[in-house]
Amino acid sequence: MLRIFLDIETRPTSRMSVREAVTADIGPPGNYKSADAIAKWWAENGEAKRTEAINRTALDGTWGEIVCIGYVVDDGIVGVIHCETEADTLRAFVSALRMSCHDIPAWEMNAQYIGHNIAGFDLRFIWQRSSIHGIDLPKWPLERYPKAPYVYDTMTEWAGFGGRISQRNLELAFGLERTDPLENGGADVAAALDAGRLDDVVAHCAEDVRLLRELYRRMSGWHETD
After folding, report:
1. Residue 180: closest CA among 12, 60, 58, 7
2. Which of 123, 27, 15 is nearest to 69 (CA)?
3. Is residue 93 packed enough to be buried (19+ CB in 10 Å), middle (13-18) or exposed (0-12)?
4. Fewer CB atoms near the end CB (10 Å): N or C, the chain?
5. What Rg value do the Cα atoms of the chain yield, rounded?
6. pLDDT for res 186
7. Separation of alpha carbons 37 and 202, rounded Å
8. How are beta strands 2-11 and 111-115 bridged, if at all?
9. What's the per-residue H, E or C state across 123-138?
10. How many CB atoms lie within 10 A of CB 106?
């Protein structure tokens, strides 16, 4: 069975129509009646509330956008795919995945997708964005395909269904050392992109995948019995 380790980095929507839609309902509380109180609220809170609403779209594949996709198959070399457009990034990812697995018969039904919160985030986000761009994925492990390749989610395996633990804390528990240009990891992605630090975001994504594979080794006993 192939093991496909996967991680994505996302950003808020760049579409003005979506930004306008997700901020349309922002306004002061209903008990603000006077023009002065309303103006004061907008001056003190308006921009921050708009920014917060837009930034939340990075966590929703309906609106947010994929910046890059990090992956590695089994013991291969970690790769991170980023192209000029999100659609091109997704197409390049699908192509690279097929090339990496081309010599394995029926690989789509004999693969395990591995990630941290991959079941709750990465897999669905990739499928949603691919659907929006009209890009055909290989057989993708969502509920639509009950016999599709199955998933190993390091967060769920460790914390249990409904439980949560960050990948960084799991790395710390296992004594794994991280070399990451983003001090706060994924939380710094949006700010890094705004600052023109795309290379650092890509390096962060690669480090996530590298350490993800090490966590999987420790948690599953991979190679100890294979």
Report:
1. 7
2. 123
3. buried
4. C
5. 20
6. 83
7. 45
8. parallel
9. HHHHHHHHHHHCCCCC
10. 8
CB atoms within 10 A of CB 131: 12
pLDDT of 159: 94
| The residue type at 79 | G
Q: How far apart are CA 80 and CA 189, in angstroms?
A: 15
Q: Which two tokens stand for residue 64?
A: 């947010």
37 and 28 Cβ atoms separated by less than 8 Å: yes
Residues 6+ apart with CB under 8 A from 210: 72, 78
DSSP β-ladder status, 79-81 and 150-153:
unpaired
Task: For residue 146, give both structure tokens.
Answer: 């009950």
Mapping DSSP to helix (H, G, I), strand (E, B) and coil, where does residue 62 land? Answer: coil
Give residue-wise pLDDT tens across range 25-79. 888 888 888 888 888 888 989 899 998 999 999 999 999 999 999 999 999 999 9
pLDDT at residue 202 in the model: 96
106-150 per-position pLDDT tens digit? 677 778 899 999 988 999 999 999 999 999 988 888 765 555 568
Q: How many CB atoms lie within 10 A of CB 220?
A: 17
Contacts 24+ apart (CB under 8 A), 146-150: 147/109, 148/108, 148/109, 149/4, 149/108, 149/109, 149/110, 149/111, 149/112, 149/113, 150/112, 150/113
Q: Which residues contact 216 (CB under 8 A, 6 or more apart)?
A: 3, 5, 114, 152, 154, 222
Q: What percent of the chain has pLDDT over 90?
A: 64
